[in-house]
Specification:
CATH topology of the domain at 23-85: Aminopeptidase
Radius of gyration: 18 Å
CATH architecture of the domain at 23-85: 3-Layer(aba) Sandwich
Largest sheet: 3 strands, antiparallel
Order of helices and strands: EHHEE
Distance between the termini: 44 Å
Helix content: 10-25%
Amino acid sequence: MHFRVLPVRCACHGGAVTEEIDPQDPRLIIRRLTSEDVDAMIELQQRCFPSIAPWERAHVADHLARFPAGQIGVELDGALVASSSYLVLHSKSSDD
């Protein structure tokens, strides 16, 4: 899988964007993950952490169902390229 990346130079050093960017056509989108992202999430895990077994489909689906607000994805040109998952746990006391 290949991604087209905008060639840029750091603006803080006098550089400039070398390609026009259409603000009505965003290339990078940050959004909540959905059940439709399960396969892409597992593929990302396999590519990013090849020595670690990826989550099972059921585990990913359960995580998305239990706390959908904590599951964030990043799309580049319509393809999922990053994800972040967290889960909020409530305990009875701060000692738990």
